[in-house]
Amino acid sequence: MKTALKSFILLLAITAFYQSAHAQTGGGFGIKGGLNYNSNGQYFKDAEAIWGDPRENLGYHLGLFGKINAGPVFIRPEVNYTNLTSQVNQVKLTTQRLDAPLLVGLNLLGPLVSVFAGPSFHYYIEDDLRDFDYEKYNAGYQFGIGLNLGNLGLDLRYERVLNGQQVDIDNVFTGDGDLRFQQLMLGLSLKF
């Protein structure tokens, strides 16, 4: 009797977990936000500095997303406000922009895990790294992996801007003044 009750409770728990995980894979819309770690052109070299002060290039992002399912494949358009921080010679500089990624993904391991990739379009609101007279539009790409637990989603992604910008900070990043934002983003989403 005890074994049958334990089996029933285990089956009920697995069913509830599957149903809650399945909720995030369904279509709909929601809100998202999280932290991002920015690097300006030398990501793997800058990764060594994370151990010294992990808050140095830490920023955040907030936004909205939609999700359209087509079987195991999905499309996820987003609109995000992104705040990037750059540390240059002990001076903290901020970049603010609106981002619009258009991600295509694939659900793996049922509804629990997904992978995704796609282009990301950027509009710069303010950028302390450059003079006022700069190109406000740019594009890049993102790819990552997500974990879906009910209406909550957690994802880790990498983003890189395709076109570098010319900056006027004595060519501190790559020696020629070409700057390409790249970042690791950890996000939490809530689907309605």
Arrangement of strands in the largest sheet: 1-2-3-4-5-6-7-10
Low-pLDDT stretches are 16-25, 166-177
CATH third-level topology: Porin
State mean pLDDT (0 to 100 scale). Answer: 76
Q: At CATH's second level, what is the architecture?
A: Beta Barrel
The rounded Rg comes to 20 Å
For the biggest sheet, the summary is: 8 strands, antiparallel, barrel
The outline comes out as elongated
Q: Note the total helix count.
A: 2
Helix content: 10-25%
- Count of DSSP strands: 10
Portion in strands = over 45%
Please trace the helix and strand order, writing H or E for each element: HEHEEEEEEEEE
Q: How far apart are the termini?
A: 41 Å
CATH top level class name:
Mainly Beta
The tally of domains stands at 1
Structural class: mainly beta
Give short descriptive properties of this protein.
8-stranded antiparallel beta barrel; two-stranded antiparallel ribbon; elongated; 10 strands; 15% helix; mainly beta; 192 residues; Porin
Blueprint of the fold:
Layout: H1 2-25, E1 28-40, H2 43-46, E2 58-70, E3 73-88, E4 91-108, E5 113-127, E6 137-149, E7 152-161, E8 165-166, E9 178-179, E10 181-191
Antiparallel strand pairs: 1-2, 1-10, 2-3, 3-4, 4-5, 5-6, 6-7, 7-10, 8-9
Q: Quick gist of this model?
A:
This protein has 192 residues and is mainly β.
Q: Could you explain how this protein is built, in words?
A:
The chain has 192 residues and is mainly beta. The chain has one domain (2-191): Porin (Beta Barrel), CATH 2.40.160. 15% of the residues lie in helices and 59% in strands. The strands form two sheets. An eight-stranded antiparallel beta barrel has the order 1-2-3-4-5-6-7-10. A hairpin with a 2-residue loop joins strand 3 and strand 4. It is elongated, with a radius of gyration of 20 Å.
